[in-house]
């Protein structure tokens, strides 16, 4: 069970309170949860950027603490704030530079960089300084960079944050293709994206995993879901997280059937979505949901026990 406590002189934050995590090769695993749930902290531990306070984490069966250097060689990390690109350099030069840092010869690095620019759909832009790239293009270049050393594991923190719908589609298609033979772990707040992309989902809240399963399994945790129109005064604080539209006087909810009051103005059963399950699990009161049972302690990225 992984724990991570951040401490200052006068404060302590328990970012991970005993998390058990396994991601499999050839699949996309998503970490979802409200702000502060501990998703990024978990990614940082898996990528050896920070040390766990206690517990173990493995990548390909290797302990991220005692074998950090080997783990790093097997991991590609893509984060939201990309300060690792040199804006005056072209996409090709940026990638080549990283290839050289990974020990490749200049020609080897340049050739791999050219190939990867094609993979991420930036072939035509390779010679353009990256300061001219859009946010979506920069994100794709960051993904290409994370692939330079051909890692087995790709960790992506909010890969489509801040990019437009068309670019997001390209990034999602790219992420999906990355899982071919690799282990992909991503965080996202977009439940549609998670539903579309992932094979396995961990729902985190306040440093703990409160549910995990395939998208279908997580969706089924929402039970029967209805859309209901209520008078505004009927919306209790417990119901407020289910509100999807607030017109004057009446309010539209999407909620589990059993929480909707019997005297609702209108009730209609709908197909549950991942977002419905997420709102139920991770929203206020989500802590009431009992955590699922886990088989082994620690965190594993493929190769670990299942
Ligand atoms: N370096 C740090 N020093 C102190 N506290 C930190 C540090 N990094 C994270 N935390 C705290 O740990 C908790 C978990 O943060 P984390 O960034 O892992 O959450 P998250 O699930 O990724 O959230 P978000 O969705 O907002 O990215 C938060 O309370 C955060 O404030």
Automatic annotation (TrEMBL):
The keyword Transport applies. GO terms for molecular function: ATP binding; ATP hydrolysis activity. Keywords: ATP-binding, Nucleotide-binding, Transport. Residues 1-231 form the ABC transporter domain. The keyword ATP-binding applies. Gene3D superfamilies: P-loop containing nucleotide triphosphate hydrolases. It comes from the Archaea. This is ABC transporter, ATP-binding protein.
């Amino acid at each position: 069970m992984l724990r991570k406590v951040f401490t200052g002189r006068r404060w302590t934050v328990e970012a991970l309170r005993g998390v058990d995590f396994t991601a499999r090769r050839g699949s996309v695993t998503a970490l979802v949860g409200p702000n502060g749930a501990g998703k990024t902290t978990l990614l940082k531990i898996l990528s050896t950027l920070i040390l766990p306070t206690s517990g173990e984490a493995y990548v390909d069966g290797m302990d991220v603490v005692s074998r950090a250097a080997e783990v790093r060689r097997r991991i590609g990390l893509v984060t939201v704030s990309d300060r690792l690109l040199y804006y005056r350099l072209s996409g090709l030069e940026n990638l080549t530079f990283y290839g050289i840092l990974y020990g490749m010869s200049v020609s080897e690095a340049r050739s791999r960089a050219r190939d990867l620019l094609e993979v991420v759909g930036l072939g035509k832009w390779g010679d353009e300084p990256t300061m001219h790239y859009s946010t979506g293009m920069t994100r794709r270049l960051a993904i290409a960079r994370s692939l330079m050393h051909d890692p087995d594991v790709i960790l992506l923190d909010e890969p489509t944050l801040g990019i437009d719908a068309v670019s997001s589609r390209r990034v999602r298609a790219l992420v999906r293709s990355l899982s071919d033979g690799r282990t992909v772990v991503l965080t996202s707040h977009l439940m549609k994206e998670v539903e579309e992309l992932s094979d396995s989902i961990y729902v985190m809240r306040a440093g703990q995993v409160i549910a995990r399963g395939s998208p279908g399994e997580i969706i089924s945790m929402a039970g029967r879901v209805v859309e209901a129109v209520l008078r505004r005064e009927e919306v209790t604080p417990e119901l407020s997280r289910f509100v999807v539209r607030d017109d004057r006087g009446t309010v539209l909810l999407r909620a589990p059937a059993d929480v909707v009051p019997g005297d609702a103005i209108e009730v209609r059963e709908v197909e549950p979505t991942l977002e419905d399950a997420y709102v139920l699990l991770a929203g206020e009161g989500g802590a009431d949901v009992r955590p699922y049972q886990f088989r082994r302690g620690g965190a594993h990225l493929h190769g670990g026990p299942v």
